[in-house]
Amino acid sequence: MQKYLSMHFFRYIQNELYAEDIPVRELINEYGSPLYIYSYKTLVRHFKAYDDSFDSIPHLICYAVKANSNLSILRLLGSLGSGADIVSGGELYRATKAGIRPSRIVYAGVGKTEEEIDFALKKGILMFNVESEQELKKIDEVAGRLSKRARIALRINPDIDPETHPYISTGLKEHKFGIPIEEALEHYRLAKSLKNIDVVGVHKHIGSQITSAQPFVDALKRVLILVEELKKEDINIRYLDIGGGLGIQYESEKPPHPKELAKRLLPILRDSRMTLILEPGRSIVGNAGILVTRVLYTKPGLGKEFVIVDAAMNDLMRPTLYGAYHRIVPVKKVRRKGIIADIVGPICESGDFLAREREIPQLKPGELIAVMSAGAYGFSMSSNYNSRPRVAEVMVKGKEHYLIRERETYKDLIRGERLVEV
Ligand SMILES: *Cc1c(COP(=O)(O)O)cnc(C)c1O
Q1: Atom of ligand 1 nearest to the CA of 286
Q2: What pLDDT, on a 0 to 100 scale, did the predictor assign at position 194?
C-alpha cells in the first residue's frame, strides 16, 4: 500500500529540490523567503484518496478548515466536491467565500457564540455538531427567533485513547470535547423534545495524528451501538460523522492509507444506510505543503551549532507547541560533513526552534532549507509575534505557480490599531 511519504510532489532533480515541476529556488527568487509552498497535485491526490476509498457508500468529505484555511486551498478542495468542517464563524465566512456550499458544512466546537449560531443558521449549514446541553438549548432558542429548524448532531465522546500527543487527543473522558457516551441518550431525548431542533446525526472526533486504524474502529463500534439504541427511541440518525484525525508521516510513523481505514470501517458500516461524514484536515494538507527558509547566520554552541534562519515559531508553531518533528532538507543538496544543530528563528524566546539537535549537513549563510510536511497547522497557526509580518503562500501546479497570499507588510502589522495619546 502506498504510504504518505511518497504521496507528495516535492522531490530532488539533480540535487535540487522541486515543487512539482519548478525548482524551489526559483520560487524564492520570485516571492522571497520565508515562503509556504503548496502542491496542487498533492492536494488533489490526497482528497481523492479519501473520496475514492469510501466510494461504495454515501459519504461526504468535510475538509477541516482549521488545518489550513487559505481561500484558494478551500476553493480547490470545494471544486473536488469537498464540504467543510468548521469551528468558528470566521471559518464559515472563509468557506462560503471560497464557494463551499453551506449544505456541505458541519460546525463543531465547544464555545459557539450566539452570533456565530445566528450566522450559521442564516447561511443554512448542514448541521451543528453540538457539544453540550446548554449549547443545544442556545441553538434551539436562536433557531426559534429566526423561525428556522436547526439540524444537529451531538458530538459524542466515546472515551477512546487514540494514542497520540496529549494536546491533540480529544476523545477521552477528561477532555472538554463532546458529551460522554453514557449521557448521550438523555441528551438525544432532550434534543428530540426541542421545537426548533431537527436531530439528524451523531458526531465524534477522537484526536489528531492517529497512526493506527484501531482507535477509529473501536470508537465507531461504540457509536453504532448508540445509533441502535436511538432507533428504539424513534430517533433516526441520517448522518454518521466520524471526524478526522488520520495521521501523516513526519518522521517514521506509518499511518494507514485512507483505503486501509476504509477497509476496516466499511464492513462495520454496510447496510447502515446513513451518510458517512469524514473530517480530514492534516492528512489532506500536511504533506502538501513545505516552509522554505533562508539561513541567516550560524554560530557554535555547547556541543552543537545554532543555525539561525529567517523563519520562526510565529511562522510554524508546531515544534515549539508540541515538540513536533519536521523533516528538514537542504534546497540544494551538498556534500559536506554532518553537524548536530539547533535550527532556530530570530524570535526572542528560547522555545523558538524549528528543530533541535538535528543531524544535518553543514550550512552556510544565504543557503535555503525546506521544512517538510508543513501544510497543516502551519500557516493557520501563525501569528505576528515579535511584529513579524506573516509570510507569503504560493500554490504550484506543474510548471505554473500562483501567489495565494501576499506577504504582509509593516502597514499590515498596525492595521486596526489606533495611535491614541492617553
Ligand atoms: C481538528 C479537527 C478535525 C481535523 O483533524 P485532523 O487531525 O487535522 O484530521 C476534524 N474534526 C474536528 C471536530 C476537529 O476539531
Answers
A1: 8
A2: 98
Grid cell of 153 as nine digits: 448532531
Largest Cα span, the chain:
71
Q: Write out the H or E segment, with its range, that includes residue 13.
A: strand 10-13
Q: Are strands 289-300 and 338-344 parallel, antiparallel or unpaired?
A: unpaired
Residues 62, 42: Cα–Cα separation, whole Å: 18
Provide the 3-class DSSP secondary structure of residue 83: strand
Q: Catalogue all structural domains in the chain, each as residue range(s) with its CATH number.
A: 4-38+286-413 (2.40.37.10), 108-280 (3.20.20.10)
CA distances from residue 124 to 102, 149, 255, 415 in whole angstroms, order as listed = 6, 10, 35, 32
pLDDT tens digit sequence for 125-157: 999 999 999 999 999 999 999 999 999 999 999
Residue spans of alpha helices (H) in 124-242: 133-145, 184-193, 214-232
Using DSSP's 3-state secondary structure scheme, residue 350 falls into coil
CA dihedral 216, 219, 222, 225 (to 10 degrees): -40
In tens, the pLDDT along 155-209 reads 999 988 887 777 777 777 778 889 999 999 999 999 999 999 999 999 999 999 9
Between CA 38 and CA 287 the distance in angstroms is 9
Our answer on whether the CB atom of 91 is closer than 6 Å to any ligand 1 atom is: no
Strand partners, 18: 11, 23
Task: Given the residues 13, 302, 348, 419, select the one marked as catalytic.
Answer: 348
Is any ligand 1 atom within 6 A of the Cβ of residue 318?
A: no
CB atoms within 10 A of CB 417: 7
Single pTM value for the model: 0.96
> H or E element: which one contains 339?
strand 338-344
> Is 62 tagged catalytic?
no
